[in-house]
Amino acid sequence: MKRNFALRDKDGTETSVFTGRSPRQAALKAAARGHMEINLREKGTLKIHVFEGWRAQVKRPKKAPEWMPKKIWKPNVKKLGVRYLEEI
User: Fold this and answer.
1) How many structural domains comprise the chain?
2) What is the pLDDT of residues 8-66, one digit of tens each?
3) Residue 22's domain spans which residues?
4) Among 9, 85, 3, CA closest to 48
5) Residue 9 DSSP code
6) What is the DSSP string of 19-80?
């Protein structure tokens, strides 16, 4: 089952939504777009999943199609914890 996670800024505004089966999958999508401090609020709940994200440029896989560039961005995330909101 896919779930929606809203990306929150430091001031609490929700700027975009990422979809995934787990919070980590959504955080990887955010990291791939260049977000480093990732706070994802699970839609419908008061849970905020906190991640640290980074990305590195690596060589493309050996079995990659020809149209893929020689260097691609590989995202990584580390979960720092879960916080709870008082109210939305």
Assistant:
1) 1
2) 998 989 999 999 999 999 999 999 999 999 999 999 999 999 999 999 999 999 999 99
3) 3-84
4) 85
5) -
6) EESSHHHHHHHHHHTT-SEEEEEETTSSEEEEEEEEEEEEEPPTT--TTS-SEEEEEEEEEE
